[in-house]
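Pilot study result, target chain (309 residues):
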Amino acid sequence: MSRPARVGKALTGPAQRALDKRVEWTISLIDDRLGLHDRERPTVHDRIDELEVLARLQLLALGLPNAEMGEGPTSIEALDEHTGQVIDWANGPGGFAAQAGLFFNPPVPVQHHEGSVTVLHVTERIVEQPFVFGELARAGARTVLDLGGGESTVALSLASLGMTVDVVDPRGTPVPHPNIRVHACRVDELDVTGLGPFDAAIALSAVEHFGLGHYDGDEAGRPREDVAAIARTRELLTPGGRLLLTVPFGEASEDDFQRVYDDAGLDRLLEGYVETERRIFTRTGLTEWSERRDGDGPGVALVSAARPG
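Predicted structure:
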């Protein structure tokens, strides 16, 4: 089939679908609910058709063999391995969304296979985020400093709940909200004029990367950036203000990507704070995280500490 014929087939597919009265009734109901009738704007039906054609064109541009107009996989049964790999890449940390600054590192990423979609794994965010929400609620925090929150939706959640959130991240944060102020810089570059004091500060899986990789390293006697960032944060908190920190925990190590902290490393990081809670969770299965009681295995530390009053 020629390319024009395939395009024609894609464009006639929606017309054929419109002949089904059940589809027509459903579209009309949606239009009624959204108040789209009698307006000079596309109906839901028209918009669905436009998105379908755009999706096919995008798949063709990627060179997918089964993405010919009107012939691409539209059901999970028709999903092929190649298409699944493209979807996984597009949704991952190197895909199109990430390149646009819209990767949010979900707690439950999925993986596409031939004819199926499965849970890839469950990340530490499954315990980190509820820990932070619970601690902020108990503290009654209204103003929050978020360190390294560019790939997280936590700041947006807090802002939506009415809190004022200052996000410090060189990447900024891509979803605007009137309760969010963005500081597109590193913590050591932050202009603190007029900032704070904050009721709380959060650092979710962030400080373990400070000063590593594409950041400046710990060289020439400079203080380590993770330690310096947490110390500087203390000065921006109200007396008694809370620091909520999550970091990888286990046998102490460091590479170009991250640090892993042990108890001594956490103690160093929290110098000058009064620690109120330290909980260690570890992965106990593909989809399970549990609080660690036997002291074995790597995990994530969830820490609550306070600036002395």
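One observation from the pilot: The first helix runs from residue 3 to 18. A full batch analysis is planned for the follow-on phase.
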